[in-house]
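As a warm-up, study this chain.
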Amino acid sequence: MTGYRVEIRPEQHCGIVWLNGPNAVENLMQSTGDVATHPDWSVDFDIIVVVGPDSDLNDVTLERLVAYQAFISEWSSRHRTGPNSRAATVCADEMKRVIVELWLAVNRLATGVEDGIYTTLDAALAGLTRPEDG
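Now compare it with the structure written out below.
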């Protein structure tokens, strides 16, 4: 059993990665790879990462953040070619959000993707709603 699950929601123009368990950075890289191979994925979709209550984030180090930065930069250039790529991270735990803020700050430099942090999936979906979604 993996520490992640991937869900694609074409009607909401997004892919959702649900992280749960240890090895968050490794699971995030694997799951992001799975997003791109999903038959319903489109290059103009946004991505939401939901950090579950069992994601300990203990493996998050500066070295791993830099490795993820390189990975997501390459991945984005190949699999997110639509306009205004955006991302959201859902994290209800206040302490984990500190790590997520660092994570996003490092990755924002590499990808130029507009991102935000939310405490619920509904809030993230609302934050990523496009005008054409009505």
